[in-house]
Amino acid sequence: MAAWLEELVGEERLLLPGHSACAGCVPAINIRHVLGGLAAAAPAAKTVLVIPASCWTIIAGIWPVNAFKVAVHLTPFASAAAEASAIKAALRLRGLGDTTNVVVWGGDGSTCDIGFSGVSAAAERNEDIIYVLNDNEAYMNTGVQKSGATPEGAWTTTTPAGSPRAGQKKDIARIMAAHRIPYVATLALGSVPMLRDFRAKVTRAAELRGFRFLHILGACPPGWRYPTAQSTEISRLAVESRYFPLFACDDGKWRITFRPKHEVPVREFLETQGRFSHLSAEEIDSIQAHVDARWNLLAGLESQAEMPVPTL
What we know:
39% of the residues lie in helices and 14% in strands. By secondary structure, it is of the alpha/beta class.
């Protein structure tokens, strides 16, 4: 086993066993590596998690129970970015601002929809926080309703198979990059190279100051309608089909960080999930065309000159 993998196996788990996440919950793996990556990047630093209404307000537990070995603040849907900004300001006043990571762990509903104005405002102010979007592409905790991050053609309880999601999901990573914040990146887990990419991006976020935005794909077995044992495989297919491309915008410079060696058609990703089982061949071809267009757009951004962003 590679030395870096041995280190990951032996690192302290900051999400404790026995929590109430669903079987096969990819975000449970993702948050482990976010917290572990931050702790590894700055061992002396503490982390405060701010969690808006979501599955994770349930998983975290109700005081005095806590599924995490870090401080957790639970917030309403719309206020996570504002609360994280206030916590960071309070820590600065106490002389702890440089030794504490304030991290929002928000879902796509609270980030792309209900709380978007607060997220945008915090980014515009370049608040010194790390904002993590746990993107499971619907309002999963309240019954799989459509969000701004729900992909085209997807079944949800508010976009049934007879009238599925029309239009493409909100391009939240590019929207956040348009705020000219120091760092934006997409992350996913599904293979060892993807894990290396994931941890490198968490480390990079920990090195920087200002508003950092990590957009993480969080496959959801009940909401996406697939067997729990297939979570890792589905995450891998999302990246290898370029449905969820991995890239970063670091100080204004765009870079595709993972180019699949064995690229697969998006059909292979879609066919793993019941939420897409109603799609026709023509509809899948349309989604493929949009996937290809987005990849070409990212390749074009990668070739552009750097546009530096202001620092704190």
